[in-house]
Amino acid sequence: MIKAVIFDWGGVICYPITKKLVAKVKEHFNADEKAIRKAYFKDLYEYEVGKLTDEEFWQRFCTELGIKVDEKVLMGIVKEVEQLDKKVYDLIRQLKKTKRYKLVLLSNNIPVMVDYIKKKFDLSIFDNLFFSNELGMRKPHLEIFEHVLKEIKADADDSVFIDDKQENLNAAAELGIKIILFQDAAQLKNDLMILGIKV
Fold first, then answer.
1. Do 14 and 85 touch, CB atoms closer than 8 A?
2. For the chain, is the Cβ count within 10 Å smaller at the N or the C terminus?
3. Average pLDDT by consecutive 10-residue portion of the chain (199 residues)?
């Protein structure tokens, strides 16, 4: 029986931001799309595990891209492209109302976005929040899943993890956590029902 439902954030509860972010930066600074992606992903791992501050990451990004701009402008663009998938959020709210499941958020994320998310959205629908930059570890490393299970006091086979990236799901499955590859809210609801989770 499922007791814990663990959700990814970007690409599940919120729409993926990378394409929109690249498009906005390209529009603002007339930069090459491939160069933007290269600059963004170059130090993203260190950023997502809390080894770089917002200022350090975006300064490196500007240097790599060859643009001169206040990093706060770029952080503003990042916030601007964040968009909630209301159907998924409503589904989680319905799950909350059943009072049957521990609802958990597990996200690879960056400081500027975590601060924004906490202020912008009602995260009280979750029983536990886990952000990679605060933990110093990220998906798909097994240690982050082990940490989450320990903290929420749940067994792997009583838990389901929902993500839009197969590599993250594969890691969770190694520990015996049930997995759902997210496509859209309707598919998610159906897959949850298959696992006996009534919404």
1. yes
2. N
3. 97 95 94 96 98 97 93 93 96 97 98 96 97 98 98 98 98 98 98 94
Six-digit token pair at 174?
A: 């190694």
In a domain, 132, yes or no: yes
123 in a structural domain: yes
Q: In this structure, what are the phi and psi dihedrals at residue 22, rounded to the nearest 5 degrees?
A: -60, -45
Are residues 148 and 57 part of one domain? no
Mapping DSSP onto H, E and C, the string for 39-71 reads HHHHCHHHHHCCCCCHHHHHHHHHHHHCCCCCH
Closest CA to 196 of 127, 105, 103, 95: 95
Tell me the two tokens of residue 142.
């097994």
The reported pTM is 0.96
